[in-house]
Amino acid sequence: MSYSRVDVVLFWDGEQFVAPKTWVICGDSVSYLKIKFYRAFNCIYTRSKAANSEMVAVELLKVYCLPLLLYASESVSLTPSQLHELNNCIIKAVFRIFDVSNGYTVTDIRNFVGLDDVAKIVEKRLIKFMDRLVDSRVYGDVFLATSLSVRNYN
Fold first, then answer.
1. d(CA 89, CA 94)
2. For 119-154, how does the pLDDT look when each residue is reduced to its tens digit (9 = 90+)?
3. Measuring CA to CA, which residue among 122, 8, 145, 132 is closest to residue 67?
4. Domain housing 68
5. How far, CA to CA in Å, does 45 sit from each of 6, 16, 107?
6. How far apart are CA 17 and CA 122, in angstroms?
7. What is the spatial distance between Cα 67 and Cα 73, in angstroms, rounded to a whole number?
8. Number of domains in the chain
9. What is the pTM of this model?
10. Closest CA to 125 of 79, 58, 72
């Protein structure tokens, strides 16, 4: 069996294990992210009703709930169906905050308040993560050397 340069091969007790090039969340593993998101959202939403402002609820959603929904999204590859599931969480939250029933209205509200699509948010987080990784003193040189060797190999 031949291995490329980026494959990590581990030998343990006579068995060999090959690590994948990208890590993927398998199956319905985004369900724990959704549970944490809805738990935080329900708590925040019931408490923010006293403020009598939808914008307060939206800001609290951005600050407290979105990080729970997008935890470690920059380090794993999410499938399009998983991204759609996570996006539905935000859509349902906007439905509940603004008490609307039309999908086009939700899209307009999300544009007005700055709640992007989950795929865009994950892409921004990935770019920010890579920039910090390259700029870091400890891992920057290792990351650049690895990426250069992978490019030269291909």
1. 9
2. 999 999 988 888 887 777 766 666 666 655 544 444
3. 122
4. 23-153
5. 46, 50, 20
6. 30
7. 10
8. 1
9. 0.72
10. 72
Q: Examine residue 13 and state whether it is found in any structural domain, yes or no.
A: no
Q: Which amino acid is at 77?
A: S
Residue 105: inside a domain, yes or no?
Answer: yes
Structure tokens, 63:
């600050």
The verdict on residue 124 lying in a domain is yes
How many CA atoms are closer than 13 Å to the CA of 63, on its beta-carbon side? 8
Has residue 45 been placed in a domain? Answer: yes
Bridge partners of 50, per DSSP, are: none
Distance (Å, whole) CA 100 – CA 82: 25
Residue 16 pairs in a beta bridge with 11
- Distance between CA atoms of residues 30 and 93, nearest Å: 17
> Which residue matches tokens 């959603």?
61
Contact status, residue 81 vs residue 136, Cβ threshold 8 Å = no
